Amino acid sequence: MTTRTADEVRGRARQRVAELGVELDAQLPQVRDAMHKVLAGSIDELQGDGPILELLRVSIESNLETLVHIMRYDIPVEEVTSPAAAEEYARRLAQRGISSNALVRAYRLGQQTVLDWAFGQLARIEPDREIAFQAGQLFTQMTFRYVDSISEQVVIEYESERERWLANRNTVRAAMLTELIAGEKVELATAEAALGYRLRQYHLGVVVWSDAQSASGSDLQHLEKLVGKLAKALGATGRPLFMAQDRTTGWGWIPLGRSPVEIEVGDLSAAMDDVAPNLHAAVGSPGGSAPGFRDTHLEAIQARQVALVAETWVPRRLTSYTEPGVRTAAMLAWDLHQTRRLVEAKR
């Protein structure tokens, strides 16, 4: 029986890994397709999106090609940068609002798929169990380092693109909202595309705000969730539109469908019961299409003004423009200077 040193076993194992690289290069289309099938079927966020699934295929292929180079030429993983196709795939996910979890999960699932392939190949080409075991360890360690390094790089690209995309989208949305609220004539299809919201229906305008002493980024998240909670209470026909105005205030529109509806203020009030006490909401009355989108928003703004003026006496969680007395109070609260002059003149 021939005695082998640890270095000899390790050297032979490294050779086997290099040979695996040659074999992976030869079988790349098959391994790519197998991996694509696993990922496409396992990540729900990708279902039905043809272009993103095709880009996923290209990203898988580019990662496998990079892995082949590492294996064949013993390139240190730390010196490898993420493939261009993988970065573009990350950017597309960011633009579609797909969670970065889907991006990282793809790498984990992909690693498992290529490990299964590699172990199957080692069992076929290496009869020596010790060398096969060592080669398997080396390959596993290499893929873990690769996934750790590359996934970190593409997540950074994802986050950068997400920030750019949101900033640009919010700029476009803000400009379109300004035109709609100003009553300017807009092309509905263009406006809907910019807002990501259907205008050809009835809406309920909402203004939400926090009276917390110190504002934080989480306040806006709570305000957006509050709009969603109100939408659910009304049986909204889709996802509400939310636009932050500052760190403590947000505007919202709740979609109510194509038919006129009656709003029960009691349903909205009940939805506020388990909301943090520092959060408040004001709503308008339902309005249809683009003019109604504007009108219900302006009513919500006026209802909020009533709530802020009345807060000195009776703090309100929810104020509706349709409540008795609120409409009149809104007219007076809208121009407090003129109201005070009117009161002074009557004395």
Textual characterization of the structure:
The protein is α+β, with helices and mostly antiparallel strands. It folds into 2 domains: 162 residues, Globin-like, CATH 1.10.490; 158 residues, 2-Layer Sandwich (Alpha-Beta Plaits). Strands 1, 2, 3, 4, 5 and 6 form a 6-stranded mixed sheet that branches. A hairpin with a 4-residue loop joins strand 2 and strand 3. Helix 2 crosses helix 3 and helix 3 packs antiparallel against helix 4. The radius of gyration is 30 Å and the shape is elongated. The C terminus is likely disordered.
Question: Short description, anyone?
Answer:
The chain is an alpha+beta fold and 347 residues long.
Q: Which descriptors would you attach to this protein?
A:
single chain, 347 residues, alpha+beta, Globin-like, Alpha-Beta Plaits, 6-stranded mixed beta sheet, 12 helices, 9% strand, disordered C terminus
